Amino acid sequence: MNRSLQDLVALLDLEPLEVNLFRGQSRDLGGKSVFGGQVIGQALVAATRTVEGSVPHSAHAYFLRPGDMELPIVYEVDRVRDGRHFSARRVQAIQHGQPILTMIASFQLPEVGVEHQSAMPEVPPPEALRDFKELAEQWLAEATPEVRARVHDAMTRQTAIQFRPVAPWNPLQPAEHAPQQCIWFRAAGNLPDDQQLHRSVLAYASDFNLLSTALMPHRFSFLQSDTAVASIDHALWFHRPARVDDWLLYVMDSPSAQGARGLSRGAIYTREGTLVASVAQENLMRRRAPST
Asked: How does pLDDT run across 87-133, given as a tens digit for each residue?
């Protein structure tokens, strides 16, 4: 387990402050504000700690304000309903006295029912692919000194999650691509046998690469200085248990972009082809006007 994964596990172990009230810390991943996946993962932990016996099957979150990486985040849980089979929780992530995220999570007591799932596409296994960090080093070596100085730290920073794209594309030289991609990912080390932790790490990882999928047809990248990008909302459905410290395939596409917003969808499979989660996210995608 690398240091970044150790930090993530610690970040997901929220401090209880009072009944229905928790506090989490933040980490700088090289962006301008707290990484959205971190807030989603922590909010899911907060909600889960107020439920007994049930497991989360869906979470729907809206990002309301940028998170301040220098401050902790307070999570306030509202126990909306506890039914015979389902429970609902509303979570507010608060900084500076204002919500930065609001999320509704639904929980279900485990039960048996009919099953079906979509098939995983045929792709090369992760062992046959290059790691994103190796690719990033190559792309940086090919970049101009100005670009290299601006994005080096963001592209080479150690992360809690490893990524191996099936069809790599260079975000420093964006070209027109169809808005779809497949990326293998896993936690950068072994995790304890705790499904609550694995679900929270999966929620964290599900926020990576959806935005870039919606950008692919438009010849611009989140790394360019003239772009303004941000997550607007994020929806996640848990279908089946999974270990996030083994390779999972994230299959993503973007069916639409309009009004400075792009919609992306994702399906997450085990290497055996079991569908474990589905994701949808809408993002702000805006080019800044050139300064005069």
From this structure: 999 999 999 999 999 999 999 999 999 999 999 999 999 999 999 99
User: Are 62 and 192 a contacting pair, CB within 8 Å?
Assistant: no
CATH class of the domain whose range is 3-110+127-287: mainly beta
Selected catalytic residue, list 87, 181, 207, 253:
207
Query: Which of these is catalytic: 231, 254, 264, 278?
Result: 231
- Residue 281 falls in the annotated catalytic set: yes
Is 231 catalytic? The answer is yes
Domain boundaries defined on the chain: 3-110+127-287
Asked if 194 is an active-site residue, the reply is no
| Identified catalytic residue from 181, 224, 254, 281 | 281
For the chain, the three-class secondary structure string (H helix, E strand, C coil) is CCHHHHHHHHHCCCEEEECCEEEECCCCCCCCCCCHHHHHHHHHHHHHCCCCCCEEEEEEEEECCCCCCCCCEEEEEEEEEECCCEEEEEEEEEECCEEEEEEEEEEECCCCCCCCCCCCCCCCCHHHCCCHHHHHHHHHHHCCHHHHHHHHHHHHCCCCEEEEECCCCCCCCCCCCCCEEEEEEEECCCCCCCHHHHHHHHHHHCCCCHHHHHHHHHCCCCCCCCEEEEEEEEEEEECCCCCCCCCEEEEEEEEEEECCEEEEEEEEEECCCCEEEEEEEEEEEEECCCCC
Q: Which of 57-61, 226-230, 283-287 has the lowest mean pLDDT?
A: 226-230
Q: Which residue has the higher pLDDT, 43 or 145?
A: 43
On whether the CB atoms of residues 79 and 124 are closer than 8 A, the answer is no
Report pLDDT digits (tens) over 39-98.
999 999 999 999 999 999 999 999 999 999 989 999 999 999 999 999 999 999 999 999
